[in-house]
Amino acid sequence: MSLQDFVVTPKFEEYKERFKNHYKLERRADGVILVQAHTLDGSVQLSVQNHRALGLLFKAIGADPENELMILTGSGEDFMMKVDPDGFKLEQDDLPHWAYEYAYKDGRINVSSLINDMEIPTIGILNGSAFHSEICLMCDLTLMAEDATIFDPHYNIGSVPGDGIHSCFEELLGVKRAAYALLTGEAFDAKTALEYGMVNEVLAKGKLIERAYKIADHIMTQPRITRRLTTQIIRRPWRQRISDDLDGGFGIQMFGHLVKHSAVHSGKNVVNATNYVKQGKKNAFD
Are 59 and 15 in contact (CB under 8 A)? Predict the structure, then answer.
């Protein structure tokens, strides 16, 4: 008999309760877990707090051997189109500290945990329009609502787009298309996102979760070891991509913030930089 016991792994009911203010969690008997990001039961509003929670959640889900497949989506009308009005007060009050804690450390963990800490297949659902869409786009499979739009507002709010969205766009779009999108804030509707290979399927909003479960049912027909080892194959390009440029991108972005001595994630900045998307325009300047 061993002299030591196994360290206790995370238990679903415990982390379901721990993360309830940021993510609604449901899990079927077969281990398919549904994660719905929210702010006060509505669409996610970006903040230092939910930014940190994401990486911690991925680590908890990945460390629980009873999870077999993750479906990740949002709540409300969009996936992420607003910033919590006071969600970056901590960053504004102490930029040098939070430029590292929130952005460089937490941000890198969020993306790397999705790719490296998840041994299970993942399905991302863009239930509506989104900036920071990379969390769903970098899942193994991605579904998108037919009325949703993907875009990156960083450059238009005076920030360097180096916090993971650059890795995602360059991998999915190629160098030239990614450069145009990052410099202009180009908005991709669902039809274009499908054509460019950013997502796998486009459906009506009300059909997305149902379709994700149907795909999950197919994936679950194969043995556990087959499912998990297949993820190791299909994620190799993502692992190479984030290994090559994720840390550097975050470092460059944070250097830009610190040199300017200003935080840029205010609700006003983001609202101003997303109005063109809400108006159905392709970019911010035409």
Answer: no
> Helix 236-260 vs helix 165-173: angle between axes, to the nearest 10 degrees?
140
Beta bridge partner(s), residue 188: 150
- Between CA 278 and CA 181 the distance in angstroms is 17
Active site residue 26: no
pLDDT, one tens digit per residue, over 179-210 is 999 999 999 999 999 999 999 999 999 999 99
Distance CA 159, CA 139 (A): 25
**Identity of the residue numbered 230:** T
Provide DSSP, 5-32: PPPPPP-HHHHHHHTTTTEEEEE-TTSE
Which has the closest alpha carbon to 138: 238, 216, 42, 62? Answer: 238
The active-site residue, picked from 17, 91, 119, 134, is: 134
Q: Which two tokens mark 141?
A: 């499979």
Distance between CA 142 and CA 180 in Å, rounded?
A: 22
Token digits for 222? 């194969």
Q: Is the pTM of this model over 0.90?
A: yes
DSSP 219: H
* Other beta carbons within 10 Å of 180: 14
Structure tokens at 215: 């795909």
